[in-house]
Amino acid sequence: xxxxxxxxxxxxxxxxxxxxxxxLESVSSAQGRFRxxxxxxSDELGNWEEWRALGEEIRSHTLENxxxxxxxxxxxxxxxxxxxxxxxxxxxxxAYIQNIVKKKEAKxxxxxxxxxxxxxxxxxxxxxxxxxxxxxDLGEWILQLDGDVPSHIVTPALHLNRDQIKDTFTEKRGYDxxxxxxxxxxxxxKELRKDFLAADIGITGCNFAVAESGAVTFVTNEGNARLATxxxxxxxxxxxxxxxxxxxxxxxxxxxxxxxxxVGQKLTSYITGITGTRLAGEVxxxxxxxxxxxxNGRSKILGTEFQSALHCIRCAACIxxxxxxxxxxxxxxxxxYPGPIGAVLTPxxxxxxxxxxxxxxxxxxxxxxxxxxxxxxxHEHLIRHREIMVENGIAPTGEKLAMNGFxxxxxxPAAYQLSAKLARTALKPWTKNDTIANGPGPLxxxxxxxxxxxxxxxxxxxxxxxxxxxxxx
Amino acid sequence: MKxxxxxxxxxDIFTSNVGKDTVELLERFGCxxxxxxxxxxxxxxxxxxxxxxxxxxxxxHMMNVFRDSEYVVGPSGSCxxxxxxxEEIFKGDPKWEDEARKLAAKTFELSQFLVDVLGxxxxxxxxxxxxxxxxxxxMTRILGVKxxxxxxxxxxxxxxxxELPQGEDCCGFGGTFAVKQSVISGExxxxxxxxxxxxxxxxxxxxxxxxxMNIGGRLSREGRNVKVVHLAEILNHH
Lengths: 473, 238
Known about the structure:
The complex is a heterodimer. The longest helix of chain A has 25 residues, at about 20-45. In chain A, strands 1-10-7-4-2-3 form a six-stranded parallel sheet, with helices on both faces. A four-stranded mixed sheet of chain A has the order 8-5-6-9, sandwiched between helices. By secondary structure, chain A is an alpha/beta fold. Chain A has helices at about 10-20, 20-45, 50-65, 65-80, 90-105, 115-120, 120-130, 140-145, 160-175, 180-200, 225-230, 250-265, 300, 315-320, 325-330, 340-350, 365-370, 380-390, 395-410, 415-425, 445, 460-470, and strands at about 85, 110, 130-135, 200-205, 210, 215-220, 235-240, 245, 270-275, 290-295, 430, 435, 450-455. Chain B folds into two domains: about 1-115, no CATH class; about 120-235, Rossmann fold, CATH 3.40.50. Helix content of chain B is about 50%, strand content about 15%. In chain B, the strands form two sheets. Chain B has a four-stranded parallel sheet with strand order 2-1-3-4, with helices on both faces. Chain B has a four-stranded parallel sheet with strand order 6-5-7-8, with helices on both faces. Chain B is globular. Chains A and B meet through helix 1, helix 15, helix 17, helix 18 and helix 19 of A and helix 1, helix 2, helix 3, helix 4 and helix 8 of B.
């Protein structure tokens, strides 16, 4: 399954992340920029909390009535001359698109940024069908040239700096100019322009589909989705089944939240809505339009306690404030959906087996929950994942024993008091100047990173007892 | 006003000063402080690790301990937030729902109790030194206590309060995270310690022993000359 990326070992991926200084520097400075801009842009709205509440209400209402809105959407797409295909699995979605590629005898396909097509591994499927596929989002294009995968859901090449990008362009495309964003950007535009003009099919993701009109909308800063949908005669849009809004009015609210939460912009440079095919008398639009609605595990989440995970509007605000993400980077998550939302979503879509560590790769600091523009309780979902792993025997036995011990200890005051009293003495062999620098047993992992204080000479409770006896009070 | 002290296991075992200062501070403002001796831990280590059902035993024990208390006050945002969360955890439980709701309503973090319940923003203490404050995650984001500790600190005579850069970022403690994901935790606490050093503060103050133990442990490992103190210690200093 294409949702998985990188080395199968979580520890290995984390270590690779921690050792990648270039990447961490890029991530850290990007997080700083995003956060400041988001704060400024949301302050500007004046009542951000009310907007968040509205965003949550819209997403919640839509997901509660998803069957209705999906039907309305597909009816309206059909009315405008489009084809709708519901793909239950990644394989079904890919097979449907492969079929179009073959039927059209397409040689070249341009694609705008889309996480769901990463999730289903569409590019590989297209190549297998004998066509060339070109990513036209700048970040995605860099990754494609490099044979790399996204580390962030909005800015996929966040882990690379401009020197690395320049090297990639030089090596793969004979680039011979400087590492300035302007020159690099201009080069990419010139290269990609040739692909746009030669493309037989344009494939896009979809930020939101509007049920009342059958439109699909794209929020970009590069305008590439616009070119990908206006130059080729055939357009294919791929969307997760939850990416839907009832009307243009709700779209307005969600886009206002999305652009601010994602990149701290009031609006992005391009917000495009495309409705169906070119009908008689119209001057533009594709000749053929296919909307592929992907389930791939999503409907299993509907109606469960994790339903709000489907509220996600893919803004990455949770990723941009996550201190764990900052220190390991996106690839460490081993999923194309990294950060807090990735840690919640990935086990839901791909099972716990290959992602056991993800729900634990969080301090539950709740910065994500606070940042989310549609109020997904991300850290609470992570706790719930942990509970499910415990309930299903996926949690390690050692941990289970330790936690059983903890519960016994904390429900038996005499045992608790005795251990509190003896703690200092018990740790004496490892204590020097009231500090433990190299602790035994479970303390070992603690002291690998920082010192541990020796328990106090007197517990609080013994002080309190003495004081009461002494009649000080 | 009768207040039961919820000392938290960490402050009980590691730093009895914090408890002493909390008791004296509350008494100074006319509270009659008792200490229910059978109290243990709020249950957070096991609950946050996913052992909800089993941990309910601990939570029930704590609800029994504080059943007759008028107010429950603790020197920790995180542990207090945990006691308050029993309300959500026992929702729908015919026997415990009501108990949990009552406990949540009468339980407060120390600075929250001083400011919101007693209406005190100046405790009249004196503490000389350059101080930076770490606003812990659970204190600010789960319990929602952001301003109370800062207000109290600002009114302490002699305190030169300097802002901690990226203060709202987690220090990397996260309960069992600190040992389970010790490598990531180490990177996070390193960054936090660097920010503390950057402020050139002589004292790092916080309202949660666990975070202070983590950051303090890293500062100590690096031989940094920053003293780590709990909020109660500054507020009860003369």
